[in-house]
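Lab notebook, bench 4. We co-purified these components, and the gel suggests they stay together. Before we commit to crystallization screens, I want a quick structural picture of the whole thing.
Request: model the full complex, all chains together.
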Amino acid sequence: MSHHAFLTASQQKTRKKHFIILGTLIVLILITFVISMNTGVIKLTPLEVLRTLFGQGDAQQQLILFEFRLPRIVVAILVGMGLASSGAILQGISRNALADPGILGINAGAGLMVMLFISFFPSTAAAPVYLLPVLAFIGSGMTAIIIYALSYKRHEGITPMRLLLTGIAVAAGISSAMIVLTLRLTPENYQFVATWLAGSIWGSNWKFVLSLLPWLIILLPFIYSKSRILNVLNLDELTAIGLGASIEKERRWLLAASVGLAGASVSVSGGIGFVGLIAPHLARQLVGAKHQILLPVSALLGGLLVLLADTIGRSILEPSEIPAGIVVAVLGAPYFLYLLARLKE
Amino acid sequence: MTVLEIEHVAIGYSSTLIVDDLSVTIPKGQISTIIGPNGCGKSTLLKAVARVLKTQEGAVYLDGKAIHQLKTKEVAKRMAILPQTATAPGGLTVFELVSYGRFPHQTGFGTLRKEDYEYIHWAIDVTGLKEFSDRPIEALSGGQRQRVWIAMALAQGTDILVLDEPTTYLDLAHQLDVLLLLQKLNKEEGRTIVMVLHDLNHASRFSHFMIAMKNGQLIVNGHPNEVMTKENLQTVFHIDAEMAICPYSANPICLSYQLYERDK
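Here is the predicted assembly.
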């Protein structure tokens, strides 16, 4: 066998392009980060932000930045990364560009738990708010398990199509249960639940960062280590088997990781939709279908998108806020329609 | 060289058996083709060989070991499969897809080693895809796309290639193109090729060994001279065939035919 140059010029160019895209996304996140640090009722100049970040600010500046704005920014980035990665996995294994974590009932399950919780603790002020993320996470996990069990068939295991259809059905069922529960709520509680469901970065202190971070630290490297397997599962089933992938086992692990990432994210952010759908899709337009590069680009795009949405939501109607989930939906819906129109062709 | 044996297999879904008690040994280093009417179980048999379907009874043996007891990754190092319905996700380039053929030989993150690159470049060269290597697959024609899938299977570096109707949806020239490529791989590399073909004359022209099936059972197998006879075609396909000799391979071909029953 003769020796070939390993990479063609065009492949080296592609590689360079990937690095440029990764770098650009990081820079964009940093720029949004600085803008977001400046967004709020009390204005700080970029210079003051930088000075405070390096420990040179006064007490009030330090309080605003470190206790209010910084954790919120970090949560927004982490949530975006988690949802986008979760969506990228689901789209990969289902070979369906319209799959997103909502389809696994993750948003609905978390929402139902939050609503049950609020119904039984009539006053939100007295309720142990720190229980909410835990309950929301349990809700998403349980819903995902129910959907998995319902779509499991002996001899055949899980087929992505049945998983998607079952997910949509279960999510619809949960949503109708929630409407019934809504009738029991007081107006104030209803407001809280509605804001939660719309998806706002309401968990904006360091405890929420700490409750989210471990999931990402464990699961992101795990899914990156599965890039090669995701590539193969993204082909059709027979080809994947022919290449020697244990598809049933790998799908289960990847689904579990996807539920973990989305569940942890939703538990602090509420039901932010679209991110898990759009970020992986945009990433695929930018860098193609190889998961080694698709996964990190999706995660960065997701982080950027949620941070941007939260920053916009905080600034356009000052001093009140628009939940980040609504901003994402307003930005995302047109893209979604464009996507549907293109799929039709 | 890997040996493939099919012994007393019964394949089917719960109550209905599609293939019943079928035994055949695939000769190594040769081209074997399964023929038969629609619904005769030929694709089902191929899927059992490819370990996609489980056998109810009997087993497929790879080098004397039941294929279901071997690790799927170990099987993938010896046998590559090209399904009929292979589809690639959008945005994937020819090089990227062909590189997936190295899957069973890789571990971890999937960084390509020197040996992997050599296999990939060789597979792209031998299938004549060098100039398309960095193009997205959806931009290629049907014939080129089929070559890409064959290249991926080749990059897997296996002794055995299993193909389910590799010429379907291709025009005449592209059909021949794919079959000539398989013939070349068999001649030059000594690879064992097992496939399902619809076109009897292609099957006869390019095979060393033919397997004729009907209603889930083996009717006859052997050299095209033994399988492609007027009597066998009548039994298997219910046709009254005018036989001739292929000027290229000297094997029998079916010149034209009538329905057998209506004739009488």
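The first helix of chain A runs from residue 9 to 38. Worth comparing against the SEC data before the next meeting. Chain A has one domain: 9-344.
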